[in-house]
């Protein structure tokens, strides 16, 4: 279960649907597996076979930064992530879209 309230979930969904409609997106880290603190960041993996365009990553990061979410969202490009880290994410991921 993702540790966010319904309003925060709506913001996350809106940004993902607007900027990443063709991508699988997973959450991982303390907001998924706990324990998390009120201002723990949200770790998000954007899954694709090719590295994401830098412009797209910047736009998504800016959308989250300018949103009303009270914590930081850390974006991770799956295609550029090491196999060791991928395995850690796969063990505790939550599909967001």
UniProtKB/TrEMBL annotation:
Would the keyword Hydrolase be found if you checked this record's keyword annotation?
A: no
Q: Which organism is it from?
A: Rheinheimera riviphila
A Gene Ontology molecular function term for this protein is: transferase activity
Task: Indicate yes or no for the key word Transferase.
Answer: yes
Q: Which domain of life is it from?
A: Bacteria
Q: Provide the organism lineage as a comma list.
A: Bacteria, Pseudomonadati, Pseudomonadota, Gammaproteobacteria, Chromatiales
- Record InterPro entries: NT_sf, Polbeta
Name recorded for this polypeptide: Nucleotidyltransferase domain-containing protein
All copies of the Polymerase beta nucleotidyltransferase domain together span 12-94
Keyword annotations for this protein?
Transferase
- Pfam families xref list: Polbeta
């Amino acid at each position: 279960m993702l540790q966010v309230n319904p309003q925060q979930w709506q913001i996350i969904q809106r940004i993902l649907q607007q900027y990443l409609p063709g991508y699988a997106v997973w959450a991982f880290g303390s907001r998924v597996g706990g324990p998390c603190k009120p201002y723990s960041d949200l770790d998000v993996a954007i899954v694709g076979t090719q590295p994401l365009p830098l412009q797209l990553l910047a736009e998504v990061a800016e959308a989250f930064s300018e949103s009303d979410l009270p914590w930081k969202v850390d974006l991770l490009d799956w295609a550029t992530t090491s196999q060791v880290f991928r395995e850690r994410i796969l063990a505790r991921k939550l599909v967001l879209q």
